[in-house]
Amino acid sequence: MAARIHGGAGAGAATALSTFNPKKLVAPSRTNLPAITRSKRYIVASGSDASNKSLRVRHSQKLIANAAVAVCLLSLILHELLLFEALQEGLEEEMDRDPHVCVMGEDVGHYGGSYKVTKGLADKFGDLRVLDTPICENAFTGMGIGAAMTGLRPVIEGMNMGFLLLAFNQISNNCGMLHYTSGGQFTIPVVIRGPGGVGRQLGAEHSQRLESYFQSIPGIQMVACSTPYNAKGLMKAAIRSENPVILFEHVLLYNLKEKIPDEEYICNLEEAEMVRPGEHITILTYSRMRYHVMQAAKTLVNKGYDPEVIDIRSLKPFDLYTIGNSVKKTHRVLIVEECMRTGGIGASLTAAINENFHDYLDAPVMCLSSQDVPTPYAGTLEEWTVVQPAQIVTAVEQLCQ
Amino acid sequence: MATSFSSATIPLHGSQENRLLLPPIRLAPSSSSFLGSTRSLTIPSSRRLYHAHAARRSPVVGVQEVVKDKKITNTLLITKEEGLVLYEDMILGRSFEDMCAQMYYRGKMFGFVHLYNGQEAVSTGFIKLLTQSDSVVSTYRDHVHALSKGVSARAVMSELFGKVTGCCRGQGGSMHMFSKEHNVLGGFAFIGEGIPVATGAAFTSKYKREVLKQDCEDVTIAFFGDGTCNNGQFYECLNMAALYKLPIIFVVENNLWAIGMSHLRSTSDPEIWKKGPAFGMPGVHVDGMDVLKVREVAKEAVTRARRGEGPTLVECETYRFRGHSLADPDELRDAAEKAKYAARDPITALKKYLVENKLANEAELKSIEKKIDELVEEAVEFADASPQPGRSQLLENVFADPKGFGIGPDGRYRCEDPKFTEGTAQV
C-alpha cells in the first residue's frame, strides 16, 4: 500500500538553510524501528518537483494484509516538532524509561539549556537528575565518567562543543580508554553532546568543529544528527548504547521542523542515511552540509544530473557498507563537510574510500571542506569559509565530466 | 575513645603566624622542615565549619596528637586484631614494592613503576576502614592502594608482568590498576585525572540515595600527591564536592616531592589542608608516617561522609623512601632529609606500638612477616607461570559493545573499514 506524506514547504528552519524540507518518513530496511512495526516500507516524498524517481515503495514480504494496514496506519501517526524539541523528547523518554539516566552540564537545569534541549526536565526530574554544574568542563566531564563507571548513565552537555576542548583530557584519557585499560571491567555508557559548527557570526571560538579532533580517540563512537527524526533516534540510541558516544548537534539546525512518528523508535548508531537515491554520483555529507547539498541537488537535477546523497550520520565508525554499495553503483564520490580541510572527517573518509573501494572509482574522490581558517566574524568572510551550494554544483559537474 | 575532632578554641589564622616556619623561597628546599607535623592544631566542630565559608577568615584546622593523649589516659587506639590487620597490610605493601623493584631490575616488568615505600601508613590507615562497596581512586602510585583494598597480590603482580591473569588482563600495567570487584577505580597516569572520576563515583553514591532511593552509604576516597594540588582539576572537584556535599574524602599524600620539584618551590602556600576551608570543607593535617593517627582522622572523615555531611580534605605528611619511579636516580633529595624520615618508618613505629602495649609479641609479628614473604613469592611464581596475552586480545574490550567497530547486528563486520582490524596493528 503506497502512501505519500505531503510535505509542506517552509520548515521554519534558520534562514540560511535551503528550503528543502525533509518532510518524509524515511524508514529504510536498515533503520531500527521497534518490534511493533515489522514493516519494511520505504516511503519517500520529496518537496521538490515530482519525478518518478522520488516516489518508491518497497513492501515487506511477510505481512498479513490487515496487520499491514494497521501497522501502516500506526506508523503514520505523526506529530510535528522542532529539532531541539525532538532531542528533548528523546532525552525525556529515556529518562522516563531508565532512572539511571541523568543529565549534567552548564545551565541545563533551571535555565532549561542554552538551546532549550533540557527545558522542563529539571522541574520533572529534580535538580540532581538534571544537574546544573559549575563552569568546569574537565571536572564535570570526569565526574560524568566516574558516575558512568559506577552505574549511572549520564548525558553530559557541552554548552558549545568548543568548550569540550577543556574536557579533552577526560574524554581522551578516561572516556575512550578506561574500558580497555581496565581490561573490560568498567563500561562508560556516557553520551557527550552539544552544538558545534559554524553559526551566524559567532566568532572563531564558538564556531569550532571538534569531530576532527575527537576522531582519533580509540574507544568512542561519534554521531552527528541532522534532522529532528534522526536527532531523536540517535539521542535514544546513544543513551542506550554501552559505548561512550559523542553526539554532534549543529547550532543552526535546532529550529528545523519535521513530522516524526508518535511511536517509539531509535536510529542505528553505526548506519548512514540515504537521503536521495541516485545514479550518477555519490555525495557524502553530514550535519548542516546536508542541507547545502540538497539545495545543490535541486539545481543539479534541473541540469540533468542524478546525485545520490548520503548523510553519513555515523562519523566513527564510518558506515562503509552503505557507502561502499553506493560507490559500487555510481563510481564517483564527492564529500561535502564542514570540518577543516586538514585532518577532518572528510580526510579520513577519503582515505577509507580510496583504500577499500579504489577499484570502483572512475575519478578521484573529491572532498569539499571548510577553509583552514579560524572562522571570521564578518558575514561575508564567514560565508566563504564554509562550502556553499554553488561550489557543490561546480564540483559535481567537474567530477561527472 | 575520644575523637580527635573535639571542639576547642579555634586559633584564628592570624595568630598562627608566629608559629609558622614558612621558609623564604630562596632557601634550599631540603633544609627546611615540613610544617605542622609536630604542631598541635585544633579543629572546630563540623557545625561551625559548615558556616566557615561565610567567615572572613578560614578557620585553621588540624588534628591533635591523639596518640600522646591516649597514652596519658591509658586507652588504646586499636585492638589486637585490628593491630595485626594493620601490620600485615603495611608489611604486604612494603614487601610487595620491594619485590617489584627486584623484578624490575631483573627485566620482568617495564615502563614506569612508582613505588610506595614509606607511605604505607596512609593507604593502610584509610583503606582498612572501608567496606568492599566503597571506592578508591588513586594515581600511578597505586599498587599498594589496590592491595589494601583487597586485590590479590597475584593479580597485581601478574598485571605488572603484563600477563593475562592480571587484574586488567595485562592491558593496564603499573599505573592502571582497576578492580570492579573491589571497587578500585584506577590507577591514572596523568595527575589529577582521577579526582573527577572519584567525584563521579561519590556522585553516584548520592544519586543512589536520593534519586533511586536505595540504601547507599558508599564513600569514595581519592588519593593524590602534593604536585596535584597545584592542578586545576583538584580545585574544580573540591568546589563541586563541597557544593553537592558528596561522600568523598580527598587524601593528599604530601611526600614533599613531585619527581624533582620540591613542594615548597612550586606552591605559593604549601599548607594544603588550608585549601579545604576555602571551599567550605574541613581541611585536616595529619602525620602520615603514623598509621594510628591517620586511622583516627580517617574514621572521622569516613563517618562524616557516610552521614552525608560532605567531603573532607586530609593532608598526610609522608615521605617516599625510594625515588619517584624506578627510573629516578633520586639524587636531588638531601640525605639528611631521607634519614630523618627513615627514622619515622611507619612499620617500625607500629611494631613498637604493638609490642610496647602488649598487643602482640615479636614472634607473632615475625610470623606475619614470613607469611607475607611467602605470599609475595607465590605471587611472583604465579605471575611468571601465567601466559602472555594473545593476538586476539588486542582488539577486545576497546568497546563494550563491539558495534562501535561497525559490526552489524548479525555479528559480522558490516559497516567498518575492512582494513581496520588487519591494518598496521601487527605487532
TrEMBL record, chain A:
Gene3D superfamilies: 3.40.50.920, 3.40.50.970. Its EC number is 1.2.4.1. Residues 81-256 form the Transketolase-like pyrimidine-binding domain. The keyword Chloroplast applies. GO terms for cellular component: chloroplast. Pfam families: Transket_pyr, Transketolase_C. Keywords: Chloroplast, Metal-binding, Oxidoreductase, Plastid, Potassium, Pyruvate, Thiamine pyrophosphate, Transit peptide. It is an enzyme of class 1 (oxidoreductase). Signal peptide: none annotated. It is found in: Plastid, Chloroplast. It catalyses: N(6)-[(R)-lipoyl]-L-lysyl-[protein] + pyruvate + H(+) = N(6)-[(R)-S(8)-acetyldihydrolipoyl]-L-lysyl-[protein] + CO2. InterPro entries: THDP-binding, Transketo_C/PFOR_II, Transketolase-like_Pyr-bd, Transketolase_C. One of its GO terms (molecular function) is pyruvate dehydrogenase (acetyl-transferring) activity. Its cofactor is thiamine diphosphate. The pyruvate dehydrogenase complex catalyzes the overall conversion of pyruvate to acetyl-CoA and CO(2). It contains multiple copies of three enzymatic components: pyruvate dehydrogenase (E1), dihydrolipoamide acetyltransferase (E2) and lipoamide dehydrogenase (E3). Tetramer of 2 alpha and 2 beta subunits. PANTHER family: PYRUVATE DEHYDROGENASE E1 COMPONENT BETA SUBUNIT, PYRUVATE DEHYDROGENASE E1 COMPONENT SUBUNIT BETA. This is pyruvate dehydrogenase (acetyl-transferring). The lineage of its organism: Eukaryota, Viridiplantae, Streptophyta, Embryophyta, Tracheophyta.
UniProtKB/TrEMBL annotation, chain B:
It comes from Eruca vesicaria subsp. sativa. Its EC number is 1.2.4.1. One of its GO terms (molecular function) is pyruvate dehydrogenase (acetyl-transferring) activity. InterPro entries: DH_E1, PDH_E1_Alpha_Subunit, Pyrv_DH_E1_asu_subgrp-y, THDP-binding. It comes from the Eukaryota. Keywords: Coiled coil, Oxidoreductase, Pyruvate, Thiamine pyrophosphate. This is Pyruvate dehydrogenase E1 component subunit alpha. Its cofactor is thiamine diphosphate. It is an enzyme of class 1 (oxidoreductase). The lineage of its organism: Eukaryota, Viridiplantae, Streptophyta, Embryophyta, Tracheophyta. The pyruvate dehydrogenase complex catalyzes the overall conversion of pyruvate to acetyl-CoA and CO(2). It contains multiple copies of three enzymatic components: pyruvate dehydrogenase (E1), dihydrolipoamide acetyltransferase (E2) and lipoamide dehydrogenase (E3). Residues 89-389 form the Dehydrogenase E1 component domain. Tetramer of 2 alpha and 2 beta subunits. Residues 358-385 form a coiled coil. It catalyses: N(6)-[(R)-lipoyl]-L-lysyl-[protein] + pyruvate + H(+) = N(6)-[(R)-S(8)-acetyldihydrolipoyl]-L-lysyl-[protein] + CO2.
